[in-house]
């Protein structure tokens, strides 16, 4: 059985900053074909669907659809705030290579 993805406390904390009391939406992490390496990450605020894997922490929710789940098995979803910018990042043990910007990968 594949390990589900993990979400760091830092990622949950950033999601809490993004969400407001008036509107709390889950962070969707998905994988689709495309990008310069073959697959690309799609990270956005969205609503949860019935068949999503739901990961919760700090009162926040991250969801992953069943099609993307095998590509994200054992991955760590984090938030990085660096000189080049702040963004959600994925450390994916399934990726054999990735592009320089970190949004696309190959298996």
Notes on the protein architecture:
It comes from Paracoccus sediminis. It contains 1 helix and 9 strands; from the N terminus they run E-H-E-E-E-E-E-E-E-E. The chain is mainly beta. The chain has a single domain, classed as HesB-like domain (Hypothetical Protein Aq_1857, Chain: A, Sandwich). The protein has a 6-stranded mixed sheet, with helices on one face. It has a 3-stranded mixed sheet with strand order 1-6-7. Strand 6 (76-82) and strand 7 (85-91) form a beta hairpin. The model has no long low-confidence stretch (mean pLDDT 86).
Secondary structure class reads mainly beta
Shape: globular
- Main pleated sheet: 6 strands, mixed
Proportion in helices: under 10%
Separation, N- and C-terminal Cα atoms = 18 Å
| CATH architecture assignment name | Sandwich
Tell me how many strands there are: 9
The third-level CATH topology is Hypothetical Protein Aq_1857, Chain: A
The average pLDDT value, as a whole number, equals: 86
Gyration radius from CA atoms, angstroms: 13 Å
Side-by-side strand order of the widest sheet: 4-5-2-3-9-8
Query: By CATH's scheme, which homologous superfamily applies?
Result: HesB-like domain
Organism: Paracoccus sediminis
Pfam family, one: Fe-S_biosyn
Protein name: Iron-sulfur cluster assembly accessory protein
GO molecular function: 2 iron, 2 sulfur cluster binding; 4 iron, 4 sulfur cluster binding; iron ion binding
Question: What's a concise summary of this model?
Answer:
The chain is mostly beta strands. About 10% of the residues lie in helices and about 45% in strands. The two termini are about 20 Å apart.
């Amino acid at each position: 059985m594949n390990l589900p993805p993990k979400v760091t406390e830092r990622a949950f904390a950033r999601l809490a900053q993004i969400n407001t009391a008036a509107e709390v939406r889950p962070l969707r992490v998905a994988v689709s074909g495309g990008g310069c390496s073959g697959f690309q990450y799609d990270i956005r605020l969205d609503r949860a669907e019935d068949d999503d894997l739901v990961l919760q922490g700090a009162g926040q929710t991250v969801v992953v659809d069943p099609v993307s789940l095998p590509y994200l098995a054992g991955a760590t979803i984090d938030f990085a705030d660096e000189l080049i910018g702040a963004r959600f990042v994925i450390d994916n043990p399934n990726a054999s290579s990735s592009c320089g910007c970190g949004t696309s990968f190959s298996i």
